[in-house]
Design goal:
Strand content: under 5%
Structural class: mainly alpha
Distance between the termini: 20 Å
Oligomer: single chain
Largest sheet: 2 strands, antiparallel
Radius of gyration: 23 Å
Bound molecules: zinc ion
Order of helices and strands: HHHHHHEEHH
Length: 226
């Protein structure tokens, strides 16, 4: 059973892809609403993201923005901490040049600072909101991932691993050109935003997957309770 298809059947206006086989929907709109409410109790973020991808959600954007801002701040702080640690290591190296390990500590501190600076996200702007919109649209895309054929995982030898191309979503990620267009930037400046985009997509892809699992579980329950 694919709950995403059930939603598509019950809300034809919101249908994002064709349902191949017809038939009478097993679940009523009230069943779906109850299931969504129950899933939201278990994991509000995952459920709202799932709704944003497959139906609609007025809350998902604010919730994703909150996560983005937390991560943004975390990265800003990492730069400040890295700079401070490098300063301290520099004075240590000057004051105690003869002490073993001081030079090594200095180069480690510098490397950490440089890494934090490189992972810092661009200054917060409206583009973060465009990224959220693009990611949600991207995850709801009907196009099947060509690498894993929609399974979300691939076999590597005897191992089953998450498909790196689609991040395990099974759906084809937007091309570089499509992403640049959606974000209103040129393809060369896309590189600056790539990390924000990838991070946001991974966050939402994980939440959408969890939302699907939760709704699968909760959809059975209202029927049983009725
Ligand atoms: Zn894939």
């Amino acid at each position: 059973m694919d709950v995403r298809r059930i939603i598509g059947r019950l809300y034809p206006a919101a249908m994002k892809y064709e349902v191949g086989n017809g038939g009478v929907p097993v679940f009523t709109q009230a069943d779906i609403c109850a299931a969504i409410a129950m899933a939201a109790q278990a994991d509000r973020f995952a459920t709202e993201v799932w709704c944003a991808v497959w139906y609609e959600s007025s809350k998902a954007d604010g919730l994703i923005r909150h996560r983005q801002c937390e991560e943004y701040l975390r990265r800003v702080q990492a730069v400040e901490i890295g700079r401070l640690a490098a300063h301290i290591a520099e004075s240590e190296a000057e004051d105690h040049a003869g002490v073993p390990g001081v030079r090594r500590a200095l180069s480690a501190a510098r490397a950490e600072r440089d890494e934090a600076e490189a992972s810092r996200w661009p200054a917060y702007s409206a583009r973060y909101g465009l990224i959220r919109k693009t990611v949600i649209a991207d995850l709801g895309s009907a196009k099947v991932c060509p690498t894993c054929a929609g399974r979300g995982h691939v076999t590597s030898g005897t191992l089953v691993v998450n498909c790196a191309h689609c991040g395990g979503t099974g759906r084809k990620p937007a091309s570089e050109r499509q992403r640049a267009e959606a974000l209103g930037i040129s393809r060369p400046s896309l590189a600056r935003w790539q990390d924000v985009y990838d991070w946001t997509r991974e966050l939402c892809a994980r939440a959408e997957k969890r939302g699907t699992v939760l709704l699968r579980q909760t959809l059975g329950e209202p029927k049983m309770a009725a």
